[in-house]
Amino acid sequence: KKTADELIVALEQDEFVPYFQPQFDAVTLDIVGAEALARWNHETRGLLTPDRFLSVAEATNRVADIDAVIFEKALFHLARWQANGFQIPSVSVNISAQRLGDDRLFDSLNRIAFKPGSVSFELLETIYLDDPDVSLVAAVRRLKAAGIDIEIDDFGSGHASIVSLLELAPKRLKIDRKLVAPIRDSLSRRQMVASIIEIGRSQGIEIVAEGVETMEHAAILRDLGCHALQGYAFAKPMPANAMMAFMRDWQ
Ligand code: G
Ligand code: G
Ligand code: NA
Ligand code: MN
């Protein structure tokens, strides 16, 4: 109750900001994108991560509002980085089922200018039903028509069938960090990740590994043919200004 009321005030007072975690080409280690992750800059409790507010936001129908703020701010920062000469091609933002079903989403896509291919929406694997969901397929088609790329997030953690996922023809598939963590020590886990990468490659889908915590993991994933890497081995999520400094230092 308390957090629910505070959330409304926080949205009015504009306390939500994106942090950014860079993503790297697995072979060249060039920065190929960044994921925007919501943070609540709480006036007394400090910086809060989504585990502290997402479930309340979902329950009180506020998560679409948070998604909208993060999307707009992520685009603002991308434009600023590019204006400062950084060649980062795109940002990814997380999108809730709530926002996906919200018509204001398409209003804002019409209102806000962005280059096609410069924004991806990460859809949690768990937002799929077992049956290919007609309204989801329709929403995804509209997003693509509006120039948004689709990414399947946390792949391997949910229960959606590979067939229903492939029906969405996503541009990227992100392998869940729980599958990535054991690849160094477990042959069978490594083979499983290899199979996912194989499926992605055969379907023309880029594979991004999340939760890449060591350079050994990075090397294994590169050798398995994974396209892009994201994780603490390279960088933790950081504020927009720190992200710009990071890109400068990385070059
Ligand atoms: O780093 P981290 O604690 O930021 O993120 C935890 C989870 O919160 C992520 O896995 C992601 O699914 C979710 N999340 C982060 N930012 C957003 C956001 O802007 N919108 C939504 N809907 N989920 C987010
Ligand atoms: O949207 P998604 O669930 O993929 O968000 C990624 C989550 O994973 C965020 O909470 C982010 O802070 C976290 N994260 C990013 N890199 C790493 C990593 O290397 N290890 C771990 N354990 N978590 C990570
Ligand atoms: Na995500
Ligand atoms: Mn994820």
From TrEMBL:
Cellular compartments annotated: Membrane
Species, as recorded: Gellertiella hungarica
Domain of life: Bacteria
EAL domain ranges (all copies): 1-251
Protein name, entry field: Diguanylate cyclase (GGDEF)-like protein
Taxonomic classification: Bacteria, Pseudomonadati, Pseudomonadota, Alphaproteobacteria, Hyphomicrobiales
Part of the intact protein present: 614 to 864 of 874
